[in-house]
């Protein structure tokens, strides 16, 4: 889902700048009994407006002097800002850089180079990934919601297709930022579904790739991140260690196991049908068709695997091992392996979340 920004990303850029002070000036003739000149009254509003403007102008110039300085520095280096990056995007980068001009300059140059080489998939190309990565309605805060079926992707995609899945996630974020968010609320909500994700096969490369790209090139974009149907051991550890994050970050992160429907119903306007909702949109219908085909394919593969096992039962084995030894040693190995891999997955998850939400976090990827 920050996945996916950096989203991320917690506050709107409008709150990053302080409010302008208003100055009230009252005219006085110095004597309560002296007559009032009507012409002086007629001049007061214009004089007041001129005074307000003169006081506000220096504040506006000072508050955004970094913007002119940035454009001048880029011009001196022969770098042109692409049309895709407007002033509002620059303000988000400035907020993410905590007002550090050098950090801002480096991050803008990095994003410009990235956009020159990275290929964003078209809407037609994204249809290939429509059952794994798709936008589905807004949340209760009217932010568009991106569904990322991470577990399905990792359990069904061959290893050589997984980088393209990460590319699809980033491309969907790009399309959402360009066409779905509103100027009043430029954030997005991301729901990561981990159903089918095995603790023994952690998609570290996908998670790191997505989190790095979103953190670097989509700052202050993520409004809320839902992570549902995590493996139990990972979810238990995550709920404990997630307390190291700042309160504002924890507020934006919601982790749920199999009892996820209550959380989603409270935060999403429409729940996808594959998650138990009653939505009948085209996307949900197409996902249902894809899932049915996948289940049939898995069923056929299981039957074939069972037949292969039964056909090989008459093959003699050279060594006989006590079943009790297998159970005991296998159980210990499995517990140890689960604990180690669970901790690794937790670390990647915290890196993703902290990197997207909190630029000063010790887990931030940019450090």
Commentary on this structure:
This protein is α/β, with parallel strands linked by helices and 367 residues long. Helices cover 53% and strands 8% of the residues. The protein contains 13 helices and five strands. The chain has helices at 38-63, 65-76, 87-96, 101-117, 123-126, 150-156, 162-179, 204-217, 232-241, 247-252, 261-267, 282-311, 323-357; strands at 133-138, 144-148, 188-193, 222-228, 253-256. Strands 1-2-3-4-5 form a five-stranded mixed β-sheet. Helix 8 (204-217) links the parallel strand 3 and strand 4 (222-228). Helix 7 packs parallel to helix 8.
Which helices and strands, and how do they pair?
Blueprint: H1 38-63, H2 65-76, H3 87-96, H4 101-117, H5 123-126, E1 133-138, E2 144-148, H6 150-156, H7 162-179, E3 188-193, H8 204-217, E4 222-228, H9 232-241, H10 247-252, E5 253-256, H11 261-267, H12 282-311, H13 323-357
Helix pairs in contact: 2-4, 3-4, 7-8, 8-13, 9-13
């Amino acid at each position: 889902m920050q996945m996916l920004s950096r989203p991320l990303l917690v506050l709107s850029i409008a709150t990053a700048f302080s409010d302008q002070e208003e100055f009230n000036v009252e005219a006085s003739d110095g004597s309560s009994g002296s007559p009032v000149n009507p012409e002086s009254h007629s001049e007061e509003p214009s004089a007041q407006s001129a005074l307000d403007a003169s006081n506000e102008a220096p504040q506006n110039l000072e508050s955004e002097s970094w913007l002119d300085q940035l454009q001048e520095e880029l011009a001196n280096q022969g770098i042109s800002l692409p049309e895709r990056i407007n002033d509002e995007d620059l303000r988000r980068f400035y907020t993410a850089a905590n007002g550090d001009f050098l950090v801002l300059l480096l991050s803008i140059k990095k994003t410009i180079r990235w956009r020159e080489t990275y290929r964003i998939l078209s809407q037609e190309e994204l249809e290939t990934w429509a059952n794994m990565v798709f936008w589905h309605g807004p949340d209760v805060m009217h932010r568009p919601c991106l569904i990322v079926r991470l577990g399905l992707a990792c359990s069904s995609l061959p290893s050589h297709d997984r980088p393209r899945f990460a590319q699809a996630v980033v491309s969907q974020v790009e399309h959402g930022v360009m066409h779905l968010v509103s100027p009043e609320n430029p954030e997005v909500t991301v729901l990561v579904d981990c159903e089918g994700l095995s603790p023994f096969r952690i998609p570290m490369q996908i998670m790191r790739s997505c989190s790095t790209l979103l953190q670097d090139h989509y700052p202050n974009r993520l409004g809320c991140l839902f992570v549902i149907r995590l493996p139990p051991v990972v979810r238990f550890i995550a709920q404990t260690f997630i307390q190291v994050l700042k309160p504002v970050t924890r507020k934006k992160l919601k982790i749920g196991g199999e009892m996820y429907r209550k959380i989603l119903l409270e935060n999403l306007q429409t729940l996808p049908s594959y998650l138990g909702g009653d939505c009948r949109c085209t996307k949900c219908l197409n996902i249902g068709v894809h899932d049915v085909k996948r289940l049939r394919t898995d069923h056929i593969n299981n039957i074939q695997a069972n037949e292969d096992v039964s056909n090989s039962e008459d093959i003699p084995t050279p060594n006989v091992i006590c079943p009790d030894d297998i159970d005991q040693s296998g159980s210990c190995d499995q517990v140890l392996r689960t604990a180690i891999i669970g901790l690794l997955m937790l670390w990647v998850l915290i890196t993703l979340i902290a990197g997207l939400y909190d630029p000063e976090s010790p887990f931030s990827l940019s450090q």
